[in-house]
């Protein structure tokens, strides 16, 4: 192995948590079972890494082998990076007919035609997702395996999930995807997060939804002390009404574990006490961000428990209805 390959493997091993190393290496076809017995997984990680590098050097490890190990780790642990969703638009009639072999051949052909200095590896996962790893180079440099781009695409769907993509390489990847999948264009879906499964399920509606059974209406506020003996029944009905609205807005059962929703405000400032800002022709700009370990579950609970008002504002319900977690709010709406 040359120094570049050693550095790439060394960084990869450092990146993998020590408790996952043995499991990850056991799935690497380049390392045999008897090779694993030669490694001491109780050693400090720095010493373990040096011993692994020595073992790999003796086995003639290549860049191809190292990228295989990296793909194993990323596919098994996708939540270690930030993912952004994209949506393919204007499908041609033959778009649904593309299968894996065609996709591999055509994607590699299209991307290398746009940039011949790339290294591409494509692998199909057990959940039918096609994983693409791209190391980018140019006319003066070899492909940089330290900073690859990953793209995940489920064939016969218009969605692609990408991480590690720079502004420079975005047009190249987009064009190769559009040509290969037989669509007309591709756009940012305004959805991102670390939990790949969550943003996939939200975008593809792969979770239990509840559809409206009636037109939602605001609950009646009671300012007086109720004396009606049927008040308990009314309270039960109000509780059920809130629960129904919460489920209609955010779904029922287990929800995708989305961690964040961002609202970029570009609205007119309205406050009679501040004439300077109120009279300005420029919109008032700001950013509001909601975060939680499970944002959709938190919002559903806030509505069903009465903490948030009903009916649910479109600012919140749009997360599930539009499959997005990034919105630009103007005076015309979201």
Automatic annotation (TrEMBL):
GO terms for cellular component: chromosome, centromeric region; nucleoplasm. One of its GO terms (biological process) is chromosome segregation. InterPro entries: CENP-NAC/CAD_complex, Chl4/mis15/CENP-N. The keyword Protease does not apply. The keyword Nucleus applies. It is found in: Chromosome, Centromere; Nucleus. Transmembrane segments: none annotated. This is Centromere protein N. It comes from Esox lucius. The lineage of its organism: Eukaryota, Metazoa, Chordata, Craniata, Vertebrata.
